[in-house]
Amino acid sequence: MHARELVELGALVAVHGSAFMHRPSPLTDRFMEQYWVASRCRHDRWIQGMSGWEDRSRDPAGRDGPHVRAIIEEVLLTELLTRTWAAVAVGCDRVQHADALSPIVRGVLAWHVEARNRAMQLMVHGGGFEMDEGAALNRLRRQTERWTDMMMGYVHRGCDVAEFAFCSERARDFAADLGGQLQQPTGNHVWNLTLVGLRSAFQHGLSHASPNAELNQRIAGSVLGCFHSEAFEGSSWFKSLWTLRLDQIADNAQFMIDDLFVLDQMPAMPR
To answer: What distance in Å separates the CA atoms of residue 225 and residue 248, rounded to the nearest whole number?
Structure first.
């Protein structure tokens, strides 16, 4: 699964977040365990890939520029889902007066922020990128940040957006604009137009394939598994993804643990 598809999932999670927050017994431990493990596997792959780039600093000829660029793109793009899902899950705990989800999603977000900081260091100080490549990655960063804050406008009532937005003031501005638009007679078209804009924004200029497509798929399936099927009706590619969700009900996330790069240092999932 390409990272751009997780951008769309992150947007859908935000849009349907309020319904999720108020749904009784909204999810199972299995899906959250899978989210935790798959996210950790992907994080370790990111760190190893970027560390390999840094280790070859004295031998530029040994660097795999396209691969590390794809890693950085994946880190930047998929943070939208990590942040919106964290915001929704924390909001759910708040509504349910529980603490079941918050430690998990906050832990995954902390890993993602670590990887993002590493990616930013490579973009600024890592060397080896052509000027236009560095500029393209920086544009992608700004674009993803802006869209993430826009999506926070859908969940701002359920959580403190300052914790999950890149710019809390911008997220609140988006929330105010969104509230006004939804009150208009054409308010039901706002999301459709937003989705068109989102897809267009990330349609071009990205690497052909994502380095961790199978883990992206696992993460998407685990998040999707926490929602009712009706939540994503009308979204074309989610019909096939829903089949993946059904398959995963009987699946076991344990098989991915062998793929961890630092198994003995993997933290236990919060309970």
So the answer is: 8
Q: Give the residue among 33, 257, 55 at the shortest CA–CA distance from 266.
A: 257
Q: Where are the domains of the chain?
A: 3-265
CA distance 238 to 152: 21
pLDDT in tens, 217-271: 999 989 988 887 665 665 555 555 556 555 554 454 454 555 554 445 566 667 6
**Consecutive H or E run containing 149:** helix 131-155
State the number of CA atoms in the 13 A half-sphere of 233 facing the CB.
4
Q: Which contiguous run of DSSP H or E holds residue 80?
A: helix 65-96
Per-residue pLDDT tens digits for 22-40: 877 656 678 899 999 999 9
Rounded Cα gap, residues 151 and 84, in angstroms:
7
Q: How many CB atoms lie within 10 A of CB 200?
A: 9
* Sign of the four-CA dihedral 248, 254, 258, 263: positive
The pLDDT > 70 percentage for the chain reads 74
The DSSP H or E segment spanning 170 is helix 168-182
Q: What is the pTM of this model?
A: 0.85
| pLDDT for residue 252 | 46
3-state SS, 218-250, equals: HHHHHHHCCCCHHHHCCCCCHHHHHHHHHHHHC
Position 228: which residue type?
Answer: H
| Backbone CA torsion sign across 178, 184, 187, 189 | negative
Q: What is the pLDDT of residue 149?
A: 94
Contact 242, 229 (CB under 8 A): yes
For residue 231, CA distances in Å to 14, 18, 19, 41, 79 come to: 11, 11, 9, 28, 21
